[in-house]
Design brief:
It is a single chain. With about 475 residues, the protein is of the alpha+beta class. Helix content is about 35%, strand content about 15%. The C terminus is likely disordered.
Amino acid sequence: MSCPSDDRLNTYLAGQLEPWEAETIEQHVATCPTCPAVIEAHSSLFARGSADGDSGETGRVLAPGDKVGDYVLLHRIGAGGMGVVWAAYDPVLDRELAIKLLGDHAHASRSLRARFEREARITAKLQHPAIVHIQDAGTHRGEPYYVMKLVGGKSLDAAIAERTTMAARLGLVQNVTAIVDAIAYAHEAGVLHRDLKPQNVIVGEFGETVVIDWGLAAMTKSAATPELDDAPTPAATLNPSGVLGTPSYMPPEQAGGFLVDHRADIYALGAILYQVIAGQRPYANHTPTATLVAVLDGPPEPLAALAPDVPPDLRTIAETAMAREPGERYASARQLADELKRFSTGQMVGSHRYSRPERARRWVGRHRTALTIGTVVALAGVATAGLARDATVEDTRCSGMGTGLPACGIHFVPPPYAWRSSPVERRMAPPLRIASSSGSTITAVTGPRSAPRRAKPRTGVASNRKRCSICECSASIASAPR
């Protein structure tokens, strides 16, 4: 192809081309003798360099203590196909940051530099708590670098490996939800990640989740989520040496060399959730080439076999996101995020068909607090009624009430049959006994058969009015409990 115009190169550097158009320019830049110089002239974002960084020392390997721009390198954090990341010290603000540089192979690939610069520009456009923040950029020894926040912690891949049981790994679902939220925001801003995997997610020391490495990101035509046909068209400009992305987390259309849209990221998010549930990545124990073949051949091992105890609705979420056909996946990352939030809060997941026992368990789980409070209130009511009833079970003395006569002082002892529920129990109860104030006990004329037939009055306390044989007063014989 002929060299692109300056305006088209500027559009490419701003990350505003379709993915296949960007790949076409990158392949051209890799073989063109003049376009790299033009791109470098247009890269105003990386025009600033350090006094010692552009001195021509392009062959020396970076080491701790070297100065890159205004920053001092501390130690190397990691490296990948798109560069190397160092922890660095900012002497101006007295803080630690992270610096990403192209690395030792930067001069061997002209297209790699252009992709690196596009990564910085695209990432800088995204302002989300779960997306790494770009804070500065420049050149060192003629090669670009950018500065970002240093997030202490470990990769999501390492966090999954540390949790050996599914119950422990379920705690990472909240991290997956944060990832999906970030990707939903990126899609709404018109950015596709195209290389989502647990290695590209940092789980911070304070529980934060950060998506990193946007090296394969691409801009769509508009900020809205793209609406494309369900059947992607072949990518004529696909690099014959392989495909972009990580095989275990890419959908079949990406593994087959077809153009992808936002639904490829949704598949990758489902694959991350799959790994959290199963404890292993999809298509485990395969080489990269064999994994591509396996992805094209069929779905990974079912989650029901790898994790039979997983909540069925969570399994449905992962399987829906990883559907073979793009049109059968969630329509957007926002919809996937909403499903995960519903699961985490005990609500019904829209993509799952619940059985009656599952609905009952979900209802109990969602109303657990109300049920607990209701149970406590009910038990307290029963206990209060019992105390009130026991409070009435006390001996009463004859007070001559209603007669105008002095009290006789006879102490009425409540019979145990007063709270008997059946006639047989009442017949077997001992006769009524009365005790005088002098301590002598007298057996009453009325025996068990004279007990009231209604053992439980509406007031909840069984009482019987008896006439005192001494003073003819009417005294109340309190009832005994059951």
